Amino acid sequence: MKGITLIGMPGSGKSTIGKLLAKKLGCKFVDLDILIKEKENRGHEEILEKDGGAELLRLENLYTLDLDLENTVFSPGGSIVYSLPAMRKLQKETNIIYLKLPLLEIENRLGGKIDSRGIVGFKEKGIKKLFRERDILYKNFSHKIISCLGLDKEQLIYEILQHQ
């Protein structure tokens, strides 16, 4: 099976849906945030704080390029779209699904945790500017866009499976 990559803003449900989708399909699930934490022994927040956004982007690119994505549901961080080599690999080896939500819903889901999420560019740009910037990139790189607002987990998985 060709892999599936779920892209979207932090809080869009990539990890939650990815785990459920992988289980339903009987394939592997890889969460890039967790992979980086396991390999680097530190999370996004610490990497951003100590080494900056460029280092986190480098690690996202490095570990994505090293993955075998066959029979895999892949959930990268929302900033993966800043890595052209990684996105080219994902476009070639997976079906990229953009889990699209309106900015207000993203803000609601992130709530008070937004500052501690380890979001590349958040401190410099804020969530609104990041959303506008990334939304364009997500649309350009995705094979399919699914508007997630109002869909429960099962409905969203059904929508993803319709495009495989």
Q: What does the model show?
A:
The structure is a single chain. The longest helix has 20 residues, at 122-141. The protein has 164 residues and is α/β, with parallel strands linked by helices. Strands 2-3-1-4-5 form a 5-stranded parallel beta sheet, with helices on both faces. It contains 8 helices and 5 strands. The chain has a single domain (3-159), classed as P-loop containing nucleotide triphosphate hydrolases (Rossmann fold). It is globular. The protein has helices at 14-25, 32-40, 44-51, 53-65, 84-93, 103-110, 122-141, 153-161; strands at 3-7, 28-31, 72-75, 94-100, 144-147.
How is the main sheet built?
5 strands, parallel
Named CATH topology: Rossmann fold
Q: How many distinct domains?
A: 1
Portion of residues in helices? 40-55%
Strand order of the largest sheet: 2-3-1-4-5
What is the approximate shape? Answer: globular
What's the Cα radius of gyration? 15 Å
First-residue to last-residue Cα separation? 10 Å
Structural class, judged by helices and strands?
alpha/beta
Q: Quickly count the helices.
A: 8
The level-1 CATH class: Alpha Beta
Reported CATH architecture? 3-Layer(aba) Sandwich
What oligomerization state is this entry in? Answer: single chain
Low-confidence segments, given as residue ranges, are none
Strand content is 5-15%
Q: Quick one: how many beta strands? A: 5
The gist of it:
Helix content is 54%, strand content 15%. The protein is of the alpha/beta class and 164 residues long.
Structure characteristics:
164 residues, alpha/beta, Rossmann fold, 5-stranded parallel sheet, 8 helices, 15% strand
